[in-house]
Write a structure and sequence with these properties.
By secondary structure, the protein is of the alpha+beta class. It has five domains: 94 residues, no CATH class; 121 residues, Sandwich (Immunoglobulin-like); 39 residues, no CATH class; 100 residues, no CATH class; 138 residues, Nuclear Transport Factor 2, Chain: A (Roll), CATH 3.10.450. The chain is built from twelve helices and 29 strands. Strands 6, 8, 9, 10, 12, 13 and 14 form a seven-stranded mixed β-sheet that branches. A five-stranded mixed β-sheet has the order 21-24-25-26-27, with helices on both faces.
Length: 527
């Protein structure tokens, strides 16, 4: 065989191989395309192939589909490639219903249930009212309301069970609607992650069924579309720390903490960025952007003023000042010297604390019972509450700090912090949500209490004590650190109502006996 013949045969083999590969690849691509396109065309919720504004937008097509022009063209293209798939009849009554091309068969009952919002445009954070009406002659019931977001030509479900508080695990009761009955739901635009949803196009989806005892497949209905728009925030407004940035103003040549998305009106360039201008750190406090450097300096000034008015020379100089309230983080009660009764120094403290409350981060305190006069002494020329100067009372101070940390974690919905200050066994049984943490804060924040310790255990109870209203809180030491013992409380206490102040009882009387063991015999407040 000569060289030319060999070259010719080799070229022929290569051509045949390429042809087989191309044909095989074509059939593989064809199979994948056919499977995918028919799945997409059969999707009743597809807006790309089913969106419409009037009946004339909808065309009956093969395989029982009712599609818009784009969907019809796509199906016609598929007919030439996937002809073996098309062995169906044309649908009847193909029309535009609720903005979607559909047949009477698919939407015979859905049209009889009206799902609508009170408006079609909302500001961010505004309450949205969802109205569900049963227009059937039969009772219906539904138990799932979900939210869908329109993004990149698709409706995507982003939140479910919106009628339940964010992060709450609660069982949904099925809602029954009689013929002609209407139900309204109000939603605050907060998702199940406790964050407000962003601006955009949305709609609700409701699953429901005819109430006949033997439920058929759950039907679904959509509300009208509605828009949530995000108005530009005011300069000082914020929801979280990351909203706030330092902005250098040409109007007064100073830095200010403002919302990063706010529209700031500027003056003509009047000043230069001098070296002494240092951008402050900014935080979101009480929904207002504030400068942390100013707050730190203000806190130091207040502590210095408080230390000054504590100067004393004898016990008789010291008094509990109930007319000058302190706030967290400066203490519960002002123990000071009578040497500063002139009012000028006290006024300075009050003014600075008021400024701090207006501009800086406010934490929460729950305070022990106020000291008696005999508890207040002059030590090293300083008026002090002697209840918290000994070894035993130092343990009480630690428990107070732990308890207030727990309350602040509840206020800020800091679940990780809450878990870090409870016992290991407690972590196995406790499930925190923002809502139940906030409820606890309402019950215990700002209340007076007493603490009793006994070796590695302790109990805290509110005063005046009423077991029928609030429960005591038990503490246990783990690895030499005080921890809240919710495990012990869950086994020994039982809640009568649905909130922390609705009443409690003893599930296990052994815990009641332990509680009473902290008191002298015959003085237990629960007997």
């Amino acid at each position: 065989m000569n060289l030319k013949t060999k070259i010719f045969i080799g070229a022929a083999i290569i051509c045949i191989t390429l042809t087989l590969l191309l044909v095989g690849g074509w059939f593989l691509l064809q199979s994948t395309y056919c499977t995918t396109i028919f799945d997409e065309l059969a999707d009743n919720s597809s807006t790309e192939y089913r969106s419409c504004s009037a009946d004339y937008d909808c065309l009956p097509t093969g395989c029982g589909e009712c599609l818009n022009k784009k969907g019809s063209d796509e199906l016609r293209l598929a007919e030439g490639i996937c002809a073996t798939h098309l062995k169906c009849l044309l649908p009847t009554n193909c029309s535009c219903r609720n903005g979607i091309c559909s047949t009477e068969l698919n939407h015979r009952k859905q049209d009889k249930t009206t799902i609508a919002t009170d408006k079609t445009e909302y500001n961010r954070g505004e309450n949205i009212t969802l109205i569900v009406r049963n227009n059937l002659d039969e009772k219906i019931e539904f138990h799932v309301i979900r939210l869908e977001h329109y993004n990149e030509l698709l409706w995507k479900e982003i939140d479910d069970d919106i009628d339940c508080p964010c992060s709450a695990f609660c069982k949904k009761a099925q809602t029954r609607l009689s013929p002609g009955e209407t139900r309204e739901y109000i939603w605050n635009q907060v998702g199940d992650d406790c964050r407000k949803i962003p601006d955009g196009r949305y709609r609700f989806k409701v699953y429901w069924a005819i109430q006949d005892g033997l439920y058929e497949e759950w039907l679904k209905s959509h509300s009208n579309e509605f828009t949530i728009k995000n108005n530009p925030p005011k300069a000082g407004d914020c929801e979280k720390d990351s909203d706030c940035v330092a902005h250098f103003s040409q109007c007064d040549c100073q830095y200010h903490c403002v919302n990063k998305d706010a529209e700031i009106k500027e003056c003509a360039d009047e000043c230069l960025m001098a070296k002494e201008h240092i951008a402050p750190d900014c935080l979101c406090v009480n929904n207002t952007c504030v400068e942390t450097t100013r707050c730190n300096k203000l806190e130091e000034e207040i502590n210095e003023l408080i230390e000054e008015i504590k100067y004393c020379e004898s016990d008789s100089d010291c008094v509990l000042d109930e007319s000058t309230p302190l706030v967290c983080p400066f203490g519960c009660y002002l123990v000071r010297s009578k040497l500063f009764n002139d009012g000028e120094a006290l006024s300075a403290v009050e003014e600075k604390i008021q400024e701090y409350q207006n501009k800086c981060l406010i934490c929460l305190y729950s305070c022990p019972h106020p000291p008696e006069q005999e508890d207040i002494k002059c030590r090293s020329n300083k008026c002090v509450d002697t209840r918290f100067t000994g070894s035993t009372t130092n343990e009480k101070e630690k428990i107070i700090n732990l308890f207030n940390t727990y309350l602040n974690a509840g206020k800020n919905c800091d679940i990780n912090l809450s878990k870090s200050i409870i016992t290991e066994k407690s972590k196995e049984i406790v499930h925190y949500t923002c809502s139940n943490m906030a409820d606890e804060v309402k019950c215990y924040a700002g209340r007076d209490f007493e603490i009793h310790t006994k070796q590695d255990t302790a109990v805290l109870y509110l005063t005046p004590y009423s077991h029928k209203i609030e429960n005591p809180i038990f503490f246990t030491k783990e690895n030499s650190e005080w921890r809240i013992d919710l495990y012990k409380m869950s086994n020994g206490l039982i809640m009568v109502g649905s909130t922390c102040d609705s009443g409690w009882g003893w599930r296990d009387l052994r815990l009641r006996d332990e509680f009473c063991s902290y008191f002298p015999e015959g003085e237990c407040p629960d007997k």
